[in-house]
Each structure stands twice: as C-alpha cells, then as structure tokens.
C-alpha cells in the first residue's frame, strides 16, 4: 500500500475471476512488483472457494463473492470501490509491467480531461493457445520500447486492462451491461462508450502488460460464437457501438472462424464458434436474437 499522503490519487486494482485459482494467485502475487503500489486490490468471484483461497494467501486483498458473469462481477467491484479515484480493471490472467500504475498516476494526474486509459498489450495469448505465467513474464522482460506518441485516442478500452476515473462513474451512475451474460463479450466496448461522453479514452504507450489468454474457465466455443453476433447487435441497437464498427466486428469474427475451421486451427474452438455464429444469424432472421440465449446452450 502507498504511504498516507504519498499520492494525490488513490488507485485500486480490481479483478473479476472464476475457476482459475492457480493463475489468480500468481497474478495477485506479482502485483508486489509495481513501482507505485496499489492503494487497494479488489477481487470478485462467484465461487466461495476462490475467495477463501485468495483471502488466505493475501490478507490485504478485499475479496468478495458476486453473481456469476463478468459484467455482474465488475459492477460489484465498482460498488466496492467507494474510496478510490482510479479503478483499474484487469483480467485474472493479465500481467502488469512494473511501471504500469506509476504511468496511470502520471497521466491521470496530468490530464484531467482523460476518463479512461488502456495499456499497450505486448503479447496476447487470446489469439492462440495461450501463454503460461512464466512465458508471459519473459515476454514482458523482452518487450521492445514503443515508438511514437505517449498517448493515442482509441474508441474503447481493452477489457483485460482498462482504468477509469471513478468520479465520472459515480456522478453519472455508470455500470456494465448485465444483459451481456457470462463472459460478457464486448462488455468493455459498451462500458467505454458509456464513459466516452465524460472524457477522452486513451491508450498509454508506457502502460505495458501481457494477456495470457488462459483457456480454462472460458465459455464453450458455441456460446462465444453466438455472443460474437448477438452482443454487437445488442450494442448497436442501444447505441454504444456504431453500426460501422459493429458490422466490421461481426465480419472479422465470421471470417476468422470460417478460416480457422477450414485450416484446423489448434488451440481455439473455431468449429464451435462458427456453429454459434450460424445459430445467432438464424435467430436474427427469426427476430429472436438476444445475448441471453446463450444461457440455454
């Protein structure tokens, strides 16, 4: 924890987790590497066993149980972050570079017009079979310095690592959309665009991290494939995703799943995702498409 009065901003790290206690324990343990320590660490899981384990290993962590589903768990974390200025959301398989929090503090303190910051992901295992913690640490250590501007404006934060100014969240009662169930595909875009009217959303070059892309605990390919169609349509209808971006997102997913299925891509259930895409398109034609339909799959 930071000494009292050491910083004008109180920064907390929040982690929604489910079914990955070993990785979670490693990720939380590695937070000791931060040059600028967090003022609080919040963890939310639907499984009491995860809560008991992390609380026993790290007494300083505020561990809580929440309803299953990433948006629901992140809303619980928002509600618990009553005494912080900046809340950083990270996935339970995201590794922070040692200067990550120091970079956040510098940027948020120096740019009051910024409402959200997302970092530079130097390796992302979600695009393949995933990375181990040790592989992720090696990628962090060998990451080449980025060139170009310190800050770049982006449409939305990347949910595995995005920090929000809590003043805007509290004042405008912003929340994650609980109509996006389970893994909450595109919940980061929806929340980011809810924040966007109240400040800029930026990617910080020097806030570096690695997303392991762990496959355990993720929803089956069929469900994710359905969400890849249903969730963008839901966001386009409510106005937190432009039609141009939403249709481009759907197109990219369809092409990737079709190509991966034909090629026999390892590490990702492309056939399952493609079947989910097809089921969602069929429901769209029948006028019954809804993100919640994955709960019956």
Overview of this protein structure:
This protein has 297 residues and is an alpha/beta fold. The chain is built from 10 helices and 9 strands. Strands 1, 2, 3, 4, 5, 6, 7, 8 and 9 form a 9-stranded mixed sheet that branches. It is globular and about 55 Å long. It starts with 10 loop residues before the first strand and ends in a 12-residue tail after the last helix. InterPro entries: Glycosyltransf_2, Nucleotide-diphossugar_trans. This is Glycosyl transferase.
Which CATH architecture of the largest domain?
Answer: Alpha-Beta Complex
Q: Give the helix tally.
A: 10
Low-confidence stretches: 1-6
| Rg computed from alpha carbons, rounded to a whole number of angstroms | 19 Å
Helix content: 40-55%
In total, the number of strands is: 9
Strand fraction equals 15-25%
So, the CATH homologous superfamily of the largest domain?
Answer: Spore Coat Polysaccharide Biosynthesis Protein SpsA, Chain A
What is the fold named in CATH at topology level of the largest domain? Spore Coat Polysaccharide Biosynthesis Protein SpsA, Chain A
End-to-end CA span: 44 Å
Structural class: alpha/beta
Order of helices and strands: EHEHEHEEHEHEEHHEHHH
Q: Mean of the pLDDT scores? A: 93
Protein name: Glycosyl transferase
